[in-house]
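Quiz preparation item.
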């Protein structure tokens, strides 16, 4: 016999009230009532019990609808518990893949900048992404960043700010690699240089000529050396070592 709203309302601790066709209301010793759907799995042939939620959240009518949906799956030779797990897993993946490139990139930097001892290095990462990457592709889901998106960032500055663009490419590559590890994207990394971006953009040396620093006139070396010896920084000591050993 089907349950009535009055029976559900007055259910007591220890009650197991059946509504028919596998649906019942179980009340534990503390008075907590939950809906249960009992069925035989069409996959394993074993009896299973599927929770449909607590009475405080799920009404009698809603529990009946949920049980009807489960019975429909059984008729399709599907186990409703396993189907629900699959749906939840897919929803979780879909939600995670909706994370934008900017959101993930900011998380990536926050999680790694503690190991970057040079504050200029940390700031360079943030500034370059803020100025060149986020305005162009920051809004894209990290899962959808493709070669076209990477080139959208690089092409406008490759010929004029080649060194910056090259570093940006490496940073984008690192971010997308980490996103793949965290299962936020699949497939090849669209920002890799060799065998990919290198086939579209010219190498740095072909675009930007290397400009070496001018050599110090030998007549000025004694004065420079005295000033260098007065400097106690690590950089000064290393430079003195290079000068004395002609190391390059």
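Solution:
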């Amino acid at each position: 016999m089907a349950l009535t709203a009055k029976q559900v309302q007055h259910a007591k601790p220890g009650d197991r009230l059946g509504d028919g066709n596998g649906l019942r209301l179980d009340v534990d010793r503390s008075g907590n009532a939950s809906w249960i759907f009992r069925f035989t799995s069409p996959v394993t042939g074993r009896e299973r019990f599927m929770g449909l939620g607590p009475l405080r959240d799920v009404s009698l009518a809603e529990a009946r609808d949920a049980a009807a949906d489960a019975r429909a799956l059984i008729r399709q030779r599907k186990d409703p518990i396993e189907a629900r797990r699959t749906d939840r897993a897919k929803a979780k993946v879909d939600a995670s893949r909706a994370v934008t490139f900017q959101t993930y990139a900011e998380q990536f930097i926050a999680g790694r900048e503690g190991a970057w001892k040079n504050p200029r290095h940390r700031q360079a990462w943030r500034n370059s992404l803020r100025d060149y990457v986020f305005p162009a592709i920051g809004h894209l889901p990290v899962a959808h960043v493709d070669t076209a998106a990477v080139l959208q960032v690089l092409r406008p500055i490759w010929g004029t700010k080649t060194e910056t663009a090259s570093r940006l490419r490496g940073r984008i590559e690192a971010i997308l690699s980490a996103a793949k590890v965290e299962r936020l994207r699949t497939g090849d990394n669209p920002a890799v240089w060799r065998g990919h971006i290198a086939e579209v953009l010219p190498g740095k040396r072909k675009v930007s000529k290397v400009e070496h620093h001018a050599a110090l006139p030998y007549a000025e070396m004694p004065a420079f050396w005295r000033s260098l010896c007065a400097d106690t920084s690590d950089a000064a000591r290393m430079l003195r070592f290079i000068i004395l050993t002609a190391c390059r």
